[in-house]
Amino acid sequence: MSLKGIELQIAIPKTFDAGKVADQQQQNNILQQMHANEALKKEIERKQFTVNETEKMDVVDGEKERENEQGQSPDRQVKKKKQQLQQKAQHPFKGNFVDLSG
């Protein structure tokens, strides 16, 4: 397939335009990748500085609401919880008097 002079007058400028369009598309793809990388970096940084576990705070808030509904003061319930923990932590025979005679 050979090209004639008239056909070359049309074909050559179109190849330049096609090359420019291809270059612009490549540049556009590179810019999109750079923006996506920046967005990913910002998201990772944001996640690093946020608190991951908030369930404990939810539980505490729920307990406070229940305590207020029951009408007991928070200090009183804290003491009650400490006593319960101490009872659970007591050793079955250490610190208790055991009669070994007989």
Write the layout of secondary structure elements.
Blueprint: H1 5-48, H2 55-70, H3 74-89
Percent strand equals under 5%
The number of strands is: 0
* Secondary structure: helix percent: over 70%
Low-confidence stretches: none
Largest sheet: none
The H/E string reads HHH
Structure, described:
This protein is an all-alpha fold and 102 residues long. The protein folds into two domains: 1-50; 55-89. The chain is 75% helix and 0% strand. It has three helices and no strands. The longest helix is centred in the N-terminal third of the chain and has 44 residues, at 5-48. The protein is rod-shaped, with a radius of gyration of 38 Å. The relative contact order is 0.04. The model has no long low-confidence stretch (mean pLDDT 76).
